[in-house]
C-alpha cells in the first residue's frame, strides 16, 4: 500500500507538463500544492518565465521563498492555468474544497483561470459530495452561530465552527468557517444556492462546473479525469 504522500507525488509530473513558458499560474493551497511549488521553482531555474497568483498567504510565503514572482489578483488581466487540490471529487468533476481554510480565494482564482486542474490522491474520489468530508462555508464572525442554526433548521445537517487548538480558525479574509456535516446525499447545486443567499455567508466550498481536469494518483498509476469522462 502506498501512503497518500506517494500518491500525491505521482500527480506532479503530469501537472508540470501542463505548465507552459510565459504562463500566469493560479497556485492553490494544501499538502499536494506544497509539493508542486518547488517543481514550479525548478521550471523558473530552467529559464521559464512564470508568475503566480496565490490562493493563500501560506502558499505565497512558500512561493516567494523559492523566488517565484507573485502577483496580486487585481493586477492581472488573466490567469492561464490554476492548479489546486481538492477534499472531494465526484464523478462529474465537481469538488468540495476548503479543508485548508482558503476556499474563498481558491474559488476566486480557480474560477477566473482559463483552465483549472485538480491534483488529488484516490482517497478524494467519492460517489457524491459530502460523502466523506464536511462542506466548509466561509461566514462572517458577527452572526456565525445564528447562521449555523439557520442551516441546521433548513437541511438535515450539523454545522460546526472550525477550531484550531481551542480557538476559532480565522481565514485570510478575517472570517470564520462553518464545517457542515451531511447525514445523507444533498443536491449540491440547490444547497449552494440556499447557502450563498444567507446574509453573512461569503462563499461555500462547493466548486461546481469549475474544474476542467483532475489528475489523480492511484495504487495502479495516475488517472486523468476530464469533464467528458
Automatic annotation (TrEMBL):
The active site is at 106 (proton acceptor). Its EC number is 5.3.1.6. It catalyses: aldehydo-D-ribose 5-phosphate = D-ribulose 5-phosphate. InterPro entries: NagB/RpiA_transferase-like (IPR037171), Ribose5P_isomerase_typA_subgr (IPR020672), Ribose5P_isomerase_type_A (IPR004788). GO terms for molecular function: ribose-5-phosphate isomerase activity. It holds the Pfam family Rib_5-P_isom_A. Pathway: Carbohydrate degradation; pentose phosphate pathway; D-ribose 5-phosphate from D-ribulose 5-phosphate (non-oxidative stage): step 1/1. SUPFAM superfamilies: D-ribose-5-phosphate isomerase (RpiA), lid domain, NagB/RpiA/CoA transferase-like. Keywords: Isomerase. Catalyzes the reversible conversion of ribose-5-phosphate to ribulose 5-phosphate. This is Ribose-5-phosphate isomerase A.
Amino acid at each position: 500500500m502506498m501512503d497518500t504522500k506517494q500518491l500525491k507525488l505521482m500527480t506532479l509530473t503530469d501537472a508540470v507538463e501542463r505548465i507552459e513558458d510565459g504562463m500566469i499560474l493560479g497556485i492553490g493551497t494544501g499538502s499536494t500544492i506544497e509539493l508542486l511549488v518547488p517543481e514550479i521553482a525548478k521550471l523558473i531555474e530552467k529559464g521559464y518565465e512564470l508568475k503566480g497568483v496565490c490562493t493563500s498567504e501560506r502558499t505565497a510565503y512558500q512561493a516567494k521563498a523559492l523566488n517565484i514572482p507573485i502577483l496580486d489578483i487585481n493586477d492581472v488581466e488573466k490567469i492561464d492555468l490554476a492548479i489546486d487540490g481538492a477534499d472531494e471529487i465526484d464523478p462529474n468533476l465537481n469538488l468540495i474544497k476548503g479543508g485548508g481554510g482558503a476556499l474563498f480565494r481558491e474559488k476566486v482564482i480557480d474560477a477566473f483561470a482559463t483552465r483549472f486542474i485538480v491534483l488529488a490522491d484516490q482517497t478524494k474520489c467519492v460517489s457524491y459530495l459530502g460523502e466523506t468530508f464536511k462542506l466548509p462555508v466561509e461566514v462572517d464572525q458577527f452572526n456565525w452561530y445564528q447562521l449555523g442554526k439557520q442551516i441546521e433548521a433548513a437541511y438535515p445537517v450539523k454545522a460546526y465552527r472550525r477550531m484550531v487548538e481551542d480557538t476559532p480558525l480565522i481565514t485570510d479574509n478575517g472570517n470564520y468557517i462553518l464545517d457542515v456535516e451531511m447525514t445523507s446525499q444533498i443536491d449540491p447545486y440547490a444547497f449552494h444556492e440556499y447557502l450563498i443567499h444567507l446574509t453573512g455567508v461569503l462563499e461555500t466550498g462547493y466548486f461546481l462546473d469549475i474544474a476542467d481536469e483532475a489528475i489523480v494518483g492511484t495504487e495502479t498509476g495516475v488517472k486523468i479525469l476530464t469533464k467528458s469522462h
